[in-house]
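Quick log. Single chain, no ligands specified.
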Amino acid sequence: MSSAPEIVTRPEQPYAAIRTQVTMADLGTLTHVGHPSELAAATKALLDWAAEQGLTWDVTPSESGERWGCRLETYLTDPSQEPDMSKWVTQLAFRLAD
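-> predicted structure:
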């Protein structure tokens, strides 16, 4: 992986996906600014980005669905400080396969 992250943006989408390396984990991350109801579309954008890059996720099928090595949603906005949900910031971070 190169030292500089690759940032992918699309004019019709309010977020960018990048590949990030954290201690002992290689993650695909996306920062979304907007209402939490838009997170399904943001998740799809991150999954599509990885597919376009030829990357695979650390995920395996199981009897109850999918089992992810790591899949995080981090809510970075304090609702008591920003009540307008359309301005909330959420970071998605999904572990890539080794």
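Residues 11 and 45 are 13 Å apart (CA to CA).
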